[in-house]
Amino acid sequence: MGPVLLHRKSVIGLYLHVPYCTVRCSYCDFYLVPAARGGDLEPFAAALAAEIAAAGRRQPGCAADTIHFGGGTPSRLGAGALARLLTALRAAFEVAPGAEIAIEANPEDLDRDGAAALAQAGFDRVALGVQTFDDALLRMLRRPHDAATAAAAIVAARGAGFRSVAADLILGLPGQDEARALADVARLADAGVDHVSLYLLETHDRTRLGREVALGRRVLPDADRVADLYESAADLLEGRGFEHYEISNFSRPGHRSRHNLKYWTDEDYLGLGPAAHSRRGTKRWANAADLAAYLASGGAPVIVSDERSPAMRGLEALITGLRLLEGVDLSTLAARHHAGIPAPADALLGMLAADGLVTIDGARLRLTRRGRLVSNEIFERLLPEAGAGDREAVRQFT
Questions:
Q1: CATH tag for 310-398 (out of 3.40.50.1820, 1.10.10.920, 1.20.1300.10, 3.40.630.30)
Q2: CA-to-CA distance for 390 and 371, rounded, in angstroms?
Q3: Distance separating alpha carbons of residues 176 and 170, to the nearest angstrom
Q4: N or C: which end of the chain has fewer CB within 10 A?
Q5: What pTM does this model have?
Q6: Which of these, 134, 136, 170, 171, lies nearest to 150 by C-alpha position?
């Protein structure tokens, strides 16, 4: 597949994938390499800048209203390289006034000076991978920080003046004390963060933790107990003024992740860097997940086409939209996709409503709170005819 051209004056989100981390955490199956293994961070930044410039030339006049550096751990690149990449983005694309410019960071990279440097470079939102304040669990997860470092990073981020400070926590860890987990949630809220992502642990066969669970060396908590813990955590955050706007995400007013909303509301985005995905209307594509080839080519990635049926494109929009508090308007999606969108009177939706899992108000379809707890099962029921490839493509954003 050749380069995909975007229409002039289109507005998109820009995602930059930085596939480096200090170490691979025991639960992580993302595409990444440990940064400590080589000195190729500067060559990578140069290659990414070259890809940015080439992408800008292919779509002149394309404007970005969100820029998101993810990974991996993009803060591994350092503030100087990140500032240069933001300069390259502004040279290649029109960046809309008030655009959200966000970066994911691990606590060990965000001391007071590091946070100030990122804010000065132009980032207005930072998302910290805290995961837990329990040092024993952090060691099990192979996280390179401890609880004190995480707490200090939040203070540093607040002091640097970012418009939004976000943090992630994982629930359902082996050996996780439920009272301690809720204390972690309260600690984040009381520390003044603007956004909290609560993720339920998923184990994968390819990861160290997944293998340990399979061998019986680690025992996962009972699913019902995890669901109760999640409900209690959601109640706690809502009681402290957070809006539960997406299945895993809570924000104070005005601090939703504008970039991630593009994934959930059927909008366009352009991914740069190895393993980054892009979407433009009915087209999907990805950069090959091959860092060595990416560096060797100087930032000219192999493009992998992501083909799926019109019905599956519609179902993707339906399922990702259902993650949001507002749900989806079935009529709007049907007019946009022409296939894959059930009518409000669809028998399956009626059964889900009768079971108390969704509400249907005219054309507006929403998950109930109970439905959010079993959202993956609901999404599976909405994908009965999907092939394996289509199912995996849709799961990418669920």
A1: 1.10.10.920
A2: 23
A3: 10
A4: N
A5: 0.91
A6: 134
CA distance 92 to 95: 9
Could you state, in order of their start, the residue ranges of all structural domains in the chain?
Answer: 11-263, 310-398
Q: Are 111 and 156 in contact (CB under 8 A)?
A: yes
Instruction: Please name which of 164, 181, 73, 75 lies closest in space to residue 121, comparing C-alpha atoms.
Output: 75
Q: What average pLDDT values come out for the chain (398 residues) when binned by 10 residues?
A: 48 95 85 70 95 92 93 91 97 95 95 95 97 95 94 97 97 94 96 96 87 90 92 96 97 98 94 95 90 95 89 91 96 91 94 96 95 91 61 48
What CA–CA distance (Å, rounded) separates 66 from 257?
A: 9
